[in-house]
Each structure stands twice: as structure tokens, then as C-alpha cells.
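Hi R.,

Here's the chain you asked about this morning:
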Amino acid sequence: MPDDSRRQNLKDTVEGTRLEGPDAAQWREWGPYLSDRQWGTVREDYSPDGNAWDYFPHDHARSRAYRWGEDGLAGFSDKSQHWCIALALWNGRDSILKERLFGLNNVEGNHGEDVKELYFHVDGLPSHAYMKMLYKYPHAAFPYADLVEENARRGLNDPEYEVLDTGVFNDNHYFDISIEYAKHTADDIFMRVTVVNRSECAASLHVLPQIWARDIWSWNREACERPALTLDETRIIARHPREADKEVAAWGREACEWLFCENATNMPKLFGKPADGPFKDGINECLVGADSQAVRRDAGTKAAAHFVLNLAGGESQAVYLRFAPVGSPRVNAKALFEQRRAEADEYFGVLQHGFQDDDAGNVQRQALAGLLWSKQLYHFDVKAWLEGDATHDPVPAQRADVRNSQWRHLCNFDIVSMPDKWEYPWYASWDLAFQAVAFAMIDPDFAKDQLLLLVKDRFMHPNGQLPAYEWRFDDANPPVHAWACWRVYQMEKAQRGEGDLAFLERVFHKLLLNFSWWVNRKDTEGHNIFQGGFLGLDNIGLFDRSAALAPGYQLDQADGTAWVAAYALDLMRIALELAQHNEVYVDISVKFFEHFLYIAGAINQVDNQDVAGLWDDHDGFFYDVLHRPDGLRESVRLRSFVGLIPLFAVRVLEQREHEGLSGLRERLLGFLQHRPDLAALVSRWTEPGKGNRLLLALLRGQRTKDLVRRMLDETEFLSTFGVRSLSRHYADQPFSMHINGNTLCADYEPAESDSRLFGGNSNWRGPVWMPLNYMLIESLREFHRYYDTNFSVEYPTGSGYLASMGEVADGLALRICRLFLRDEQGNRPSMAGYPQLELDPQSRNLVLFHEYFHGENGRGLGASHQTGWSALVALLLQPKE
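And the predicted structure, written out as C-alpha cells:
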């Protein structure tokens, strides 16, 4: 955590002044709020069968207006997306204008959907006063067909075929294109596009900064005035019924040509229906199709400043676009970008005070830049989506049965942190919790806003459930919201000297409803053993836990039970904090204390012999338990991260938390005296730790050691780069089990899965997975806070070296950080799939943040820009005070 002097310095930076000042909201009005992919999403799917990828494919995106948002390359917009800015490119050889990132859909990719482009989020500030990203674009025709055909040919045992594999970037025959945004004032936006010809050969490139209005006119039942972009000599006047007039200017070494069209669907092309153009694809048709009639030269709702750059080998050129209030004064654009970049350097220089390693600082800054670039306007009114728009064809009757028909209350129109704006351009409730914790490092106000979003009435279901993700809002994500709220509260308190109690109280009351939903919906028999379902760990099990089991079967889940136990402890801790200011919260804190102990008793089979406990003494591990139709119970003896999650249910109570509150200690002791079986098993209440600290955990000391011994065994869970999600033991001895007449098997796979049982992204939770490793590190540090050096385990197992839990946590954090940092040979393990970039001095400092990582060599896998939770590495890189 930053020390006091750094907190003050952060506030005193130019960016800190913006974030803390009275105009903070205005500075956040514009940002990188365009999605990277709006096509292929549930929101744009009006098919009868719910196949979103087929209903709105990539090939339609340039010609078809969206209903619920916009996308673009390196896009920027206001919060309502009234006006959108993005970049288009054409190398003179491509079959289409490059207006958005290309990738494969779920069926086309041999390991699920996958973006097939090279781009990097390089820098940014929380206010978005400065943002920068880099896109790499080949001189040769982009290999669209090759990528589709070769990935279709490959099977699940083959690696993905990536754009670098096609050869179009060989011999540096490509352009490095830096896209930067700088704000002169909160609503005076500058865009700079700098193109570097990386080849020794001359090359030409068409560069087209674009501006357009989101379609708000064709979906409304009532007439709506259409925005307009109108040429006025060399500038454009932008008029919008909901905005003040703006002007658009563009310039470079050579003058540009303005091209106009409408943000409207090309009905004749796509659907064979008559309509007047020019259409959304007009600029594409004009340049690529050589159809001069496809555009206008005077007005429209979409416009592009067309520059043609002729670049010698190694040469660079820049072009600019400005979107500002009418009559704004002249500004030296180059000086503005230099100033904003210097402010970013100042801000991160203060944040990274104490860094001894420039490479670690570079990784952290890019991780946080990825978070900032992954914000998006998320617009989705489920009721309107289900019923359709009066101005368009009626929706198929079947759509109400496809998905989300029970979520008609959900109405979102918010800036939301996305897991990955291409792979996952929609929020997921538990992803968002991890993202908020990472955001709290640089922008606690935004972090709090994100956590409050999901508990708002228009997000949260009336029954108390949080929306999981748009493909299935009623799925169950792990309940980490309370943990995230507490962590963000702590981090802000450390940064600003005081915590936001109003935030904590607001979110606490809504989380009470969500906790009740878990207890009422996921504890089938009321025995404090939870089923849960999906919980993010489907792909390391024997079967899809999102799907219903065969009749008569029930699965009691170690992870589901542990998550709810940890949830109870998090709510207890929040209630105790609130009780310091209002003793009314003492009662509710005792309630969660007791509920935690009941769950602990159940998972360890102490308080009810009718309950099948989930701990296995012989193996020293937690397992799920399967109930069969004949009444028999059987442990699913598959060692996976499912059995390690009970370590997360640990909380240390400081003396100030449990003393001085009227009646608290007496009531807690009274319960423990009444239930000595529970107290003796888990609480260690009678053994206060250093500083009169008290420990609550699902495991006593010996069981903790047994479980940690498994975790730290390099032949099982411990890898060079963190804790694997499935034991390596199953590489040589696959696990099998007979269920409902079928033999189900699981073996250790260090990279992508060889099964599509769990969907297109067949191993998307991965062998080494950042969010669970992060929570594991936090939990071990919590154990250490109680035990200090009085509790040690072998690290690694069998090594003979005894380490405290704190040392183990630090060791795991170092292993995770090694994924991104250069090793002794100068390579980044996570970037092993990009050897051409790693060997290039101009590219070797660029870092991607993947969804998960190879269990043996650390290579990044899955979504390549999953900064949503992989940005947690920024916290692990921060020097400990």
C-alpha cells in the first residue's frame, strides 16, 4: 500500500487534481467507451435459436447498423455514445476497410472465439486526459480467409493458428500505428495517429480518422431528430439533438478529403430490400470498391478524414483530428500531447515510487492501461430486446425461450469495465469484482461505482441474484462481491486516510439480499452445504456443472460451500466496520459469525451426521460429493482447485474489531460455549494470536498443513508460474468415475483442453489462472497475519525448506509476476507465443495480459487482452511497504 507521503503526492499530481477536483465528472465524460466488438453479441441477436455469432457475423458489421451500441478500432466516445471517434485503415490490398478488429467466432476457432490481430494498450490516465494504444497492420493483404480456413482445418489437439503464423508480418513488412487521445479541456478531444513504416521498403497507407453518431433515430416509436455532420469549408459542424454544437477538424502533412455516409444498414446488399443510401459501408465501398457514388461529400451521420500517407522505409508521419465546441481557441496539438504524456509520467512515477525494476514498472503501467482501455458503454434493455422495436420486423416468438426471459427488469446504460472488449464485450459479475479491486489502485471512485452498479435495482434481480453475464444472466458466478467491496474500501482508506462508509453501508444492505439468495437457492436441503453450479470452474471437472444433473443426482460442491463461507466472513467484517459507527450492526455481525460456523461444521461433518462432509482425511483434501438416486454418496476424488478454495474462507479479527462494541464479545463467547464442537474445530477462539488477534477459518492447523502440502507439491499443483487448476498427477494417471451409466474422465492438460464439453473456449479457466491465484495469495497472507512465524510448511513440498505462510504467499506472488517479467534470457514466459515480437527491439517491451497460462511454461492462452483480471498482477508488482 502507498505510504502517507505518496498519498499526498498522488493528490498533488495534475491527474490527481483532476480526479479530486469539482470537474472530475466532466473529465470522465469522454473515454475509450466504444466496444472492440459489437457484432456477435447477445444484444444484437434477434435470431429464433439464439445463435448470436451467425445472426450478426463480422461480415455484416461494416454494412449493418447496431441497435445497442457501437464498435471501432481504438474507439473513443462520450458516455452516451452520441458521438463516436475511431480509426479506419486501408493498405490498398485488403478486401475490406479495416474499421474493427477481426477474429473467429466460437465455431470457427479450433479453441473457441479468438481475436486475430496484434494490438497493445500502452498507456492511459484514469480521467482519460491521455490514452495510447498500438496497432500493427501488415503491408500485405490481411489474411482473413487463411485464418478462417486453417483454424477450421486444425483440431483440438493443435495450437491456434495466429496472425503471426501467416507470415504477413515477416521481414517487418508492416506499419506500427500509434493511436493517442489527449483532452485539452474535458470536451475538447484531440486524436493523433502516428504511422511508422517498419519495413525498409516504401509503402502507402490510407488513414481515416472517423466520427459518427450512434443510431438513436431508427429504433424509436416517436420521431427523433437525426444528428448531422455537415461540411463547412475545411471543417465539419456536428449537430446533435442532445448535445451542444461541435466542430471537427483534421490535418496532417497533406490535406485530407472528407467522405460522408449514413450510419444506416445497407438493406439492398444484406436483405435485398430497397433503400436509399449512402449506407454505413459507404466509405468502404468508395475506397475498396471504387464506387464514388457510395459516399457524399457534404453531409451525413458518419464522416472520415481520408489521408494517403506515402512512407519511405522507416519513415513516420502523423495525422490529427480535433472534436471541440464550436469556436474553441487554437491549440498547439503537438505540445498538448507532450504535456499530457508528461502528466501520465508524473502520475505513474509517484504511484511506482520504490520500484527497483524498470521492467516491472513497464508491466504494471501496461496492465493498468489495459484496464482503462477496457471500459465500454454497455447498453441493454432486456424487455425491449425481448419484445422488439415497433419500427423493425417482429421478433421471433421463440426468442423468449432462448435466454434471459426472467430478467425483464434489467436495463443497463452505463460505462462498465469489460473483461476483454473483444473476447468478452460484456460484464460478468465476478470478473467485475476483480477488475474493481485492480482499479482501486488508480481510481477508487470508479471502482466503487462499478461495485455499486451490480446491486442497483435495474441490475440486481428482485430475488437478490446478481446478473452473471449476458449469455445467461441467471447463472451463478462465485460470490466475491463482498470481498471486492471490502478490499476497495481498505485500499481507498489507505490512499486517502479515510474510508467511504456511505459506500460500504449502501452496498452492504443490497448484499444482504444476495446472500439470502445464495442460502435459499443454492443450499438444496438446508444443511449449509451448497451446490452452486457453474462457479467459474466448470472446465476442470468431469461434467458441465452449469447443466442440470440426471434425475436423482445432486452434487454438493466444496467450492460452492467455501465461497458462501467466505461470503459470510466478508459480510461479518463489513458489519463490524459499520458497527464502529453504529452499534445496530453488532447484531448482524453476530449473525454472519454464527452462519459461518454452521457452514464450517457442515463442510467438516461435525454438527449433523445426516450431512456428508466434504473433507477427506485420507487424502488431506476437500472433494465434491455426489448424491446418487439410490441414496448413496460418493466423493468425486478429483483433485482440482475446487478443493483449495476452502482456504479462502479465512479472516483475522483485530482486537479493535471485537472489543469495545457493546455486547459483541459476550454474544460470540456465548455461542461458542453453547457449541463447543464448532468452536474447537474451526475458530481457535481460545487461542488469541499476536496482538490479541482472533482467527476464523474453515481449517484447523493440521488440516491447513495437509491441504497446503498438496498445493505446494510440484508433482501436483505448484508450477513455476503459480498454482495449477488441476493436479499434474492426472497427466500420467487420468481420473475416471462412473456416473449414470457413463464413464467420465479427466486428465491434466497444461494448455487448451481436448474436449468441447464445456463450450467453444474449451479450457478458458486454464491451468494457471490469475484470479484464484491472487485470492490464494491474499488468504495465505491472512493466515500469516494470525500465525506470524509460528506456523510453517515445506515450500515446495519435499524440499525440506520450512516457510511461513507469508513466505509462501510472497513466493507465489513472485511466480505469478514471472509470467510477465523478462527472465534471465530476456524472454517473457507469457509472450512465448509471439517470438517475432520478443526478438524485435522495437516490440520487446510490449506485453499482453492473457486469460490463463500454460501450466508448465507459462505461455499466455485464451483471450489475449483479458486485463480485466490479469491486471491483478499490478497489485502483486507493487513493492510491499
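The chain has 27 helices and 34 strands.

Let me know if you need anything else.
M.
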